[in-house]
Design a protein that fits this description.
Number of helices: 26
Structural class: alpha+beta
Largest sheet: 7 strands, mixed
Radius of gyration: 29 Å
Number of strands: 28
Distance between the termini: 38 Å
Length: 714
């Protein structure tokens, strides 16, 4: 979140906001409408028109794209009314199917919106359709329709259909006749126009547009969190991409694969069979991988779930070789495979007791299968979905962006980093393929025009390496015969850059547990957190409570976005101990959460100081922008902090200036701490009294920031 856009807990947007409560249009929204007229829609409109219709978002956005793709409020409102009327008149609710069938009979012809699945009746040599909600089957379908829309045969497609009724005395004749059928997806789009428009956006603007397109408010996501969301799009833009995401419930893992694209199919992990997925050897019919760009397995995790060993073996072969067998014939396919599931333990628990694949069924907890995964997305870093996280801004109509991604599946961007960087020579072919496919996918999503600065290329290369490293490091825990790998890259100057996973940085003692035990390396190789008191081990000392304090760290440290385990108690308090005068320079103590951070630092000072002492704290900050009302609110917050500090023997003095450059904390004991973000290091906290992150900073995720510790006057 940016400093100016993060809101206090009280300022969230209600889920039931009326449609006519028009959101203020941002500069980015105006730019989006200017460069993509007719291809974007306001994302909060989907909820406004959905009602109780159980249809994917792309179906609703297809209709909104036809009638409400505008930034003119009158046009939008008229479009909403039109879409609502279309749904009311033509969407088939299951509990009203008999009424709709009666309407078709009485009128002779009626248009419906329903999910249609076709099968081949081999006895009569005809194709027949079944309508999911309407509840009719055996409707004849012309072979030319099946040839034009083969996905009708596998999984079904949402369509707009004209159904006719003609009764016959022959009981074998189905009275329902398919007058016309139109799958709900974009028929064509201008690729060159898309690429040209991309050039008008900065990288930050483009990422925010994509995040809004999948329905989220980018202001509530950091850069890393946005990339984790966008990784979910890679299977749609990259052929034969194998992705796994495991994490807590309620983080939206399966949403993209069920709602976002007409080219993806989400199935329950328990419903997977060889005939359904690959081929039915009894009749030779090809399964889902032959027709869909993405096949996603929902609720894939679960140790007690049983899996067909033959299916696992065929899947391993397909994931490695992009092919499967039909009798003596070998068939190729391009479907990407996605595996999403819930975890039941915390990351440190899994690292300490097992591995990060611990939740998978036993048949899949196999190094040969896991080694075919290209990327492990850390679902535990994704926030539980909350109402205020949904976007009210403009994003691509999802069937538009779905067609864009589909059109780029045949392109390969995997070598675009090689003029600037090179991978380690000891990375295996399979590791290299995983890194390349993730990198290629992110390049196509973020830089489809192929224009990216070296630092932008480096960012997604590191991200791609991290995702593959997460896979390989867990495999090494399962299979000791696999060789360890040095993950990183060289820049053009020959400098080596090591890449680590975020959980490796957060929990090094647990992450490297198995390797240390196997190699006999000393535990002392793991550096304790700054300022932590470490028990002394002296056999000759009779006092069993004797302890020494680790020397305070001097130098620079970087903290990654989404990292946990960081608090003012370990980051700052050890350097403030014993100080009588502390000067805090931070221009952004303006909003509620920033004043809260200041108060939490003062709480930490109150804890470490002697109760009989007083500490003088001077805050140098800047006045809030945006008028007298915001300045007044800022002063009210600072007065409350000052009053609270006084109760603990801490005298807070505040001065304002507009010439602040560095954000720092300076003590009269000789320490200077330079903070790149000042005190504003934590991501959004809900304010829920039952959320540990509300009271304990260690449970909050941080933004990307650096801290430099300088001992002055030595």
């Amino acid at each position: 979140m940016s400093e100016v856009s993060e809101v206090s807990q009280e300022a969230s947007v209600g889920l039931d906001a009326p449609v006519d409560a028009v959101p203020t249009q941002s500069e980015l929204d105006r730019k989006i409408n200017r460069h993509f007229p007719g291809a974007v829609v306001r994302k909060d409109l989907v909820k406004a028109v959905k009602g109780n219709a159980i249809v994917p978002s792309y179906v609703l956005e297809y209709l909104l794209g036809q009638y409400a793709a505008s930034d003119d409020e009158a046009t939008i409102q008229a479009g909403i009314d039109t879409v609502r009327k279309i749904l009311a008149d033509h969407y088939v609710h299951r509990n009203q199917s008999e009424l709709v069938k009666s309407t078709i009979r009485e009128r002779g012809r009626h248009r419906v919106i329903d999910k249609v699945t076709a099968t081949l009746n081999e006895k009569d040599d005809v194709y027949q359709a079944e309508f999911a909600n309407l509840g009719i089957k055996g409707v004849l379908v012309e072979p030319t329709t099946i040839k034009a829309h083969p996905k009708l045969l596998v999984g079904g497609v949402w369509c707009i259909c004209d159904i006719e009724y003609f009764h016959s005395d022959d009981s074998r004749v189905v009275p329902w006749i398919l007058g016309s059928i139109k799958p709900i997806q974009l028929s064509n789009f201008d690729v060159e126009g898309y690429l040209a428009a991309r050039r008008a956006f900065t990288t930050d603007e483009w990422i925010d547009l994509l995040v809004q397109s999948i329905g989220f408010n980018p202001e509530l996501f950091g850069r890393r969190a946005k990339l984790i969301q966008l990784v979910r799009l890679i299977p749609f833009v990259e052929r034969n991409y194998n992705l796994v995401e495991l994490g807590p419930k309620g983080t939206g893992k399966s949403h993209i694969f069920s709602e976002f694209s007409p080219h993806g199919m989400l199935i329950s992990g328990g419903e997977v069979t060889v005939p359904k997925l690959f081929v039915n050897n009894a009749n030779g019919r090809i399964g889902l991988v032959g027709y869909w760009d993405v096949v996603a397995f929902d609720e894939f995790a679960g140790k007690k779930k049983r899996a067909d060993r033959a299916l696992v073996d065929i899947m391993k072969n397909y994931m490695a070789n992009k092919s499967f067998s039909r009798g003596v014939e070998t068939l190729g396919a391009e479907a990407s495979m996605v595996f999403v599931g819930n975890t039941s333990h915390t990351v440190p628990y899994m690292l300490k007791h097992s591995d990060l694949f611990d939740e998978l069924p036993e048949s899949y907890h196999d190094s040969a299968y896991l080694d075919r995964l290209h990327h492990y997305s850390p679902g535990w870093e994704v926030d539980t979905i909350r109402g205020e996280m949904f976007s009210e801004g403009y994003g691509f109509v999802v069937d538009y962006i779905a067609e864009v991604l589909k059109s780029m599946r045949s392109q390969d961007y995997s070598d675009r980093y090689q003029q600037h960087f090179s991978l380690s020579s000891d990375i295996s072919t399979r590791d290299r393929d995983g890194i390349h496919k993730t990198f290629s996918g992110l390049m196509k999503i973020l830089y489809p025009h192929g224009e990216a600065a070296p630092e932008e290329i480096e960012e997604i290369l590191r991200f791609a390496i991290e995702g593959r490293k997460r896979v390989k490091d867990q495999i090494l825990r399962i299979d000791s015969t696999m060789a360890d790998v040095k993950f990183g890259y060289l820049d053009r100057s020959g400098t080596w850059h090591t890449v680590s996973t975020l959980e490796e940085e957060e929990y090094p003692a647990y992450y490297h547990r198995d390797r240390r035990e196997g190699s006999g390396a000393a535990d002392s190789a793991i550096e304790p957190p700054t300022g932590v008191t470490v028990p002394a081990v002296h056999d000759e000392t009779p006092d069993e409570h004797a302890h020494v304090v680790a020397p305070l760290f001097e130098g620079h440290r970087e903290f990654q976005e989404n990292q946990r385990g960081v608090s003012f108690d370990t980051l700052l308090a050890p350097y403030l101990r014993g100080a009588g005068q502390i000067t805090i320079t931070d221009p952004y103590i303006r909003q509620f959460h920033q004043a809260r951070n200041l108060m939490e630092l003062i709480e930490g000072i109150a804890v470490i100081k002697d109760a009989a002492d007083e500490v003088n704290v001077k805050l140098i900050t800047s006045e809030s922008n945006g008028g007298e009302d915001k300045v007044r609110k800022q002063l009210e917050l600072l007065v409350k902090v000052k009053q609270g500090a006084a109760a603990g023997g801490i005298n807070l003095d505040v001065s304002f200036t507009n010439t602040i450059h560095d954000r720092s904390i300076v003590t009269d004991t000789g320490w200077k701490i330079v903070l790149g973000r000042g005190l504003d290091i934590f991501q959004y906290v809900t304010g829920d009294a039952f959320d540990l992150a509300t009271r304990l900073q260690e449970y909050r995720q941080v933004k990307t920031f650096g801290a430099t510790y300088i001992r002055e006057g030595k």
